[in-house]
Design a protein that fits this description.
The chain has 199 residues and is mostly helical. The protein has two domains: 48 residues, no CATH class; 93 residues, no CATH class. It is built from ten helices and no strands.
Length: 199
């Protein structure tokens, strides 16, 4: 976080960027690059994205002109392949498929889009296979979300804190292993030396 924060601070500041472009160095004394800065807080300010923000975006995007344009572009780009269309359009899941198909069909009927075989003759087997795959992925994503303790408004902070605690625990385990392996040997070695001296 600290390194990324410093890189971003340099690149986003016109003066720092100009100095770097000319000399290849940065002013380490600049306020933006202070070592005592709370870099986690800095990144949270830059990327204050919450679950509510995402939900609000989805509400505004779905059924909008922007979504329709994206669906048409994906249809043309992938020549009617619904697998790839559904993967590329933002904010959609398998429950949106009937709505997306209807949008495409209306555009075909009105002559805005060509009629690709991959779309109009897609087999039910392929459609069901796509649905099963996406349902499986959704379950796995939900399980991962629950394991990471995410889902609230402070997802980034929760994830970072969780990983930080995991690293601390791993370090504690590592140190305990070293102590068990070498600490005991050191004590044993000390006893052997003392025994030899007594002899």
């Amino acid at each position: 976080l600290q390194v990324l924060g410093k890189v971003y601070a340099v690149l986003s500041d016109a003066n720092q960027r100009a100095v770097y472009d000319q000399t290849g160095t940065v002013d380490e004394e600049a306020e933006a690059l202070r070592d005592d800065r709370d870099w986690l807080e800095y990144w949270q300010l830059l990327f204050k994205l919450t679950v509510k923000d995402i939900e609000d975006f989805q509400k505004n995007y779905k059924n909008s002109e922007e979504e329709l344009a994206d669906v048409k572009a994906a249809y043309l780009n992938f020549q009617g392949d619904m697998d790839r269309i559904m993967e590329s359009v933002m904010c959609v899941d398998y429950t949106d498929e009937p709505r997306i198909r209807e949008m495409i069909q209306r555009a075909i009927d009105s002559g805005e889009l060509p009629s690709y075989k991959a779309f109009v003759r897609e087999s039910k087997q392929k459609m069901m296979s796509r649905r099963k795959r996406v349902e499986k992925e959704a379950k796995e994503a939900k399980k991962t979300q629950e394991e990471l303790g995410l889902g609230g408004e402070n997802d980034l902070q929760a994830l970072i804190q969780r990983r930080s605690k995991d690293r601390e625990r791993q370090m504690d385990d590592f140190l305990a292993q070293l102590e068990a392996k070498y600490g005991n040997n050191a004590k044993k070695g000390g006893k052997k030396t003392a025994a030899k001296k007594r002899k």
